[in-house]
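Worked example 4.2. Below are the chains of a multi-component assembly; read each line carefully before continuing.
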Amino acid sequence: MIQTKRKRVPVRSLKEEEDDLLLLDSNDYDGDSLSGSLHSDIFDPEDDGSSEDGERESSEDEVDGLEGSDDNDDGDESELVDGSDQGSEQQDEESDSSEDEVAPRNTVGDIPLDWYKDEKHIGYDITGKMITKKEKPDKLESFLATSDDYKNLYKIYDEYNDEKVELTKKEIMFIHRMLKGKAPHADFDPHAPYVDWFICDDARHPLSSAPEPKRRFLPSKSEAKMVAKLVRAIRKGLIKFDKPEEELNLYLLWAGDSTSDQKSKQLTYIPPPKRKLPGHEESYNPCLEFIPTEEEKASYKLMPEEDQPKLIPQRFTTLRSIPAYVNALKESFDRCLDLYLCPRVRKKRINIDPESLKPKLPSRNDLRPYPDSCYLEYKGHTGKVTTISTDYYGQWIASGSTDGSVRIWEVETGRCLKIWQFDEAIKCVAWNPLSGLSILAVAMGRDLVILNTELDTDEEQEYIKELLHLGNVIEPNASVAAIARWLPDEKYGGIMIRHFKNVSSIDWHRKGDYLSTVMASGETRGVVIHQISKKLTQKPFKIRGLPVTAVFHPSRSYLFIATRKNVRVYNLLKVDEPVKKLETGMREISSLAIHPGGDNLIVGSKEGKMCWFDMDLSSKPYKTLKNHPKDITNVEFHRSYPLFASSSEDSTAYVFHGKVYNDLNENPLIVPLEILRSHSTSSNGGGVLDCKFHPRQPWLFTAGADSNIKLYCH
Amino acid sequence: MDVDREDVSRRLHVKFVTKLDSPFKVPVNSVAIPSNVTRLGLSSIVNSIIESDNPEWKTEPFDFLIDGELIRMSLEEFLLAKGISAERTLEIEYIRAVTPRKEEEPSLHDDWVSAVNGSSPRFILTGCYDSLGRVWRLAGSCSHILEGHSGAISSVALVNSNDAETVTVATASKDRTLRLFKFDPAESVDSTTKVRAYKILRGHKASVQSVSAQKSGNMICSSSWDCTINLWNTNESTLEGESVSVKKRKGNNQAEESQSEGEAVTSLVGHTQCVSSVVWPEHDVIYSSSWDHSVRRWDVETGKDSLNLFCGKALNTVDVGGEGSALIAAGGSDPILRVWDPRKPGTSAPVFQFSSHSSWISACKWHKSSWFHLLSASYDGKIMLWDLRTAWPLSVIDTHNDKVLSADWWKGESVVSGGADSNLRISSGIAIS
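Applying the procedure described above to all two chains together yields the following structure tokens:
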């Protein structure tokens, strides 16, 4: 019966509900009176007195009219809205018979009221005049009004019609009931007995004669299935009853791209370096103090390129006047080039404290004695001292120099005892390792000269003279004769062995009779062994590669031959094939030293690396030490102390603690101890050219390119 | 005078006492002096006090002792450091400063001077790298040349000085022999006399490093690079074995008729490296130092070592002296002069360490009469005089231009030294009471 208009205002909706109620009980008298009172003009305290009377009268008329037309039960509102036009009212009455619709007294039309929310008028009437809003009472006034008259509490503001409506008692009761969730009308019985009009059984003419379907009395399988499914889902936890706490969708607004973790997990992501935030001087309109004066600008130009400031602050009055960036095109091109050439391999950066990776080394003080301070110098050579060698007791030291002289020095005082002068630069000197056989092997150019130092007792001197007397040389076979010839040395009365190539290194066998000679350019014939007592030369090996140096094993009959890249160990009794081959992985070996125990050796290379081999362990280096920036010239083990040293062309010598344990399970302990750098670092290829330990004291001799020999003591 | 100017600082009441004789004595009155004076200030005060009595007084440096300790800082600091009360009257003993007052002309040699001996007050013995030993009566006047060696002389020792007419001298050389010389220092000749050895001692297999004589003069001991210490007789009597060897030498025409040869009486074996120095201070006790880092005391009777001090450094020199002639001083391959007291139970640590040198120590000698004084010579070219009562050197003699290889006291008031600058230098006028 009632087609309610769209709900506009609470009052209106209230009225509609009330109308609905009226439907149910059409004979209710109160409803009519309510509707009448609803539309009655509500007392407005703000109305001026003049209009008040008139309106009141009219409202009374309206109420009367309402009451009068009570029986009609319709059309009353329209009559009220526009009381002036009776004819149109009549038409309305006729046109919609059942209309409860109340034509708004407000003629602004069906528009949202918030259009004119901020205006003083509420809209326009038909004639185009503004309908002004009534002024609202402010809080204080309404409070006063409430306190004056309790009825004011029951007044409601009808926004659409811009008026106040007073609720009747009945309406208030309705509201209360509805708030409680009950039917508004007290007489309505929500639990009235159900009348089943369509009983199918026992009816003479049932609506359907079909037998009762099974679904009426059998539980539904599809529902059971669905329930089972749900139960399963609940058990699995797919359905949750309590809602998960919603995470706060907060994020750091100013966080840079680099901080986001998700990006950094991706493989290709490389965080860009953070840029410095711009300062005041980079503003387009910086303060005057940031702007350099002409003098300062001129001074910038005098500066070297790298010291000049990147940006000279400039001042522009407006953003508009800033010119285009000069280098924009160039920089974007550079950026493209960078991207084009940027590495595609991600470098794994490990975040480990480098200190923790260092091995725990014993303190240097616990490893004393070792050479650390230079007290003595042996001065006298005029050229670079290329080689040194100590005698058995450590009383004397022999040195050879590029000035062609071989000198013998007293270790204790630094006194030069003997000088032999040769024509060529001395390549190598080696003192015989026997105590009573003070002879010196000197290599220079192609010659190897055995010198008698005359430092021994008379009996020993006689033996040495006999030894160095070149009597009847056994005729060697042709192949050996092509390599080396034994000649008497006229100048100093020793033996001279002339080789077919330049001699690069010599080493005495521990028994003092054999002497190995290496000729670097001799290729397969590069290593020969001379026997002094028999004046015999042997060529036991065929060398692969260019030999660099050869060293006898300190206790067994092995010979270590270093070629440029590898070290081969030959058995002197069975010389066919190398017993062992040690791979150094270095570019060019320069020197080799064997631990007095015989199982460890160190190899120095020309790229400044030093390898420690434990031959029981493997044929690969046990440790590789990269200390020197330049070529290593010599490496050396101490005969009795756990020390080894390396000398280099960078004018330093390093001293290490190198302890080899008898227990095979324990790896050798290597501790760097001291850097000895008192040799002058002169421009013409300075450096330390040789180093030798004192045979009995923890002292180190170093031969420098500055023509000095130094002794470092503990 | 300093006293008048130093009004601001605290004043101390001191009394100067001395054991010196009359010209050095001051009246035993208490004087008030400022507390911040140093040794120099004290010295000038004493000098001015003496001068007030004796107008012909020449200023003389003094050293000052409080309770037997030398003052080496300001008086105030010294009292603070030692915890001595400044309230009561201090008694300061003064001695003449131990410092050379006169430097004699250097005596130039032909080569490095490797050995110096000043045991005899009449002359100085030197050994040289030109294999000659020399006897210097005064600075610059060489009276005798001891010839015969074929290698550098490493050590010289006075064997017998009791005999007034002839003096016996032993030289050790790097040619592995020792030679004994006899000469008369009293003979007055203008030119230098050449002396040949009367006895050649052969037996060492390597360079002889050091020689020292027994007090009686009958025996000498020598140490060598062959790790042994050999004992030799010095008398001229030829035993049969020796005469055989002499005959042998004669056959080779290498030795003169007058020369005899001697062999070692006994050999003390125990050192494992070069024995660098020996001293024979008592009848049957020999001290030796070695490059095997030890100082040993040998009992001559048994030939065993009764004391073995381990030092950790190769040692070049050893001397025994000081209180009761029992302290052992040794220096070696580091700049520290160490002094041990073997009487202390369980000692292996040195009781004194003097470390003002900057290179190896080549010689150290105790003063013959003083318990406290010793000298040390070093490769840094300096000779330092030490007093056990202070850790600072009393005096530094820096006259050599090169390494000092040997040094000794002479006549109790001079220091004689030889070095790599081929000079024998004498610094005299050292007042040791």
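Take a moment to check your reading of the output against the notes. The first strand of chain A starts at residue 121 and ends at 124. Residues 369-713 of chain A form a domain with the Methylamine Dehydrogenase; Chain H fold (CATH 2.130.10.10).
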